[in-house]
Amino acid sequence: YNLIEQGAAWPDAMKHARAAYLAKDPGKADDPLAYRVLLILSTFYRKYMTLRNQCMQPWMDDWILPEMFAVGSNGAEDAWYEFAADIENWDLTETEYAGGTVDIAKCFDQIIRALIYDFAGAAGMAVHVLDASRRFQEGLVVHNTIAGGVGTGFKRRCGIPQGCPFSMMFTALLMRPWVLIARSKGANPRIVADDILLLVH
Questions:
Q1: Three-class secondary structure assignment of the chain
Q2: Are 118 and 45 in contact (CB under 8 A)?
Q3: Pairing relation of β-strands 16-23 and 195-200?
Q4: Could you read off the pLDDT tens digit of each residue along the chain, which spans 201 residues?
Q5: Across the strands, what pairs with 98?
Q6: Which of these, 174, 49, 60, 194, lies nearest to 117 by C-alpha position?
Q7: pTM of the predicted structure, to 2 decimals
């Protein structure tokens, strides 16, 4: 891992991922867009990125906002609890409010990786860790696994693996400007990975 962070290539055996297809709705098994694609990554890669994710917590604390959940110490349950508490409080005080939720379809699969590298670099992410992550992502070979078969490997033009310990952090970082804009307009935004909650009272 030290050599990789110094610029050595990732071992070929670690650069393969298995794409597992999970049906979101069993009643729509014939709809290819109704599946969540999870990339099963090398255990060695996941262990390395988990450790690096923990090491970078002080850096993340500098830019994580209270409205961001599923990164840092706040989980999705915290977001839903705050959401319910706000609504209950406004109902009790007869405060008018409006809001909505958005689930970004195929969010992790649509992310433009070059944008992530620019954002993370500008935000001050450790260069050697960002470079190791970038080289892994750009060299990743994905194999579809359907009905017990393993497909020919291919490289994805865009997207980041949902199974990567960095995926939530990268998504939150990309959403930070939007959260600041929503906050400046008096809204109460909350980001839970690819789910967006927005309330205005």
A1: CHHHHCCCCCCHHHCEEEEEEEECCHHHCCCHHHEEEEEECCHHHHHHHHHHHHHCHHHHHHHCCCCEECCCCCCHHHHHHHHHHHHHHHHHCCCCCEEEEEECCCHHHHCCHHHHHHHHHHCCCCHHHHHHHHHHHHHCEEEEEECCEECCCECCCCCCCCCCCCHHHHHHHHHHHHHHHHHHCCCEEEEECCEEEEEEC
A2: no
A3: unpaired
A4: 999 999 999 999 899 999 888 877 778 777 777 777 888 899 999 999 999 999 999 999 999 999 988 787 777 788 888 888 988 999 999 999 998 888 887 888 889 999 999 999 999 999 999 999 999 999 999 998 887 888 899 998 988 888 788 988 999 999 999 999 999 998 888 888 778 888 888
A5: 200
A6: 174
A7: 0.84
Paired tokens of 44: 């060695």
Q: Of 128, 14, 120, 114, whose CA–CA distance to 63 is shortest?
A: 120
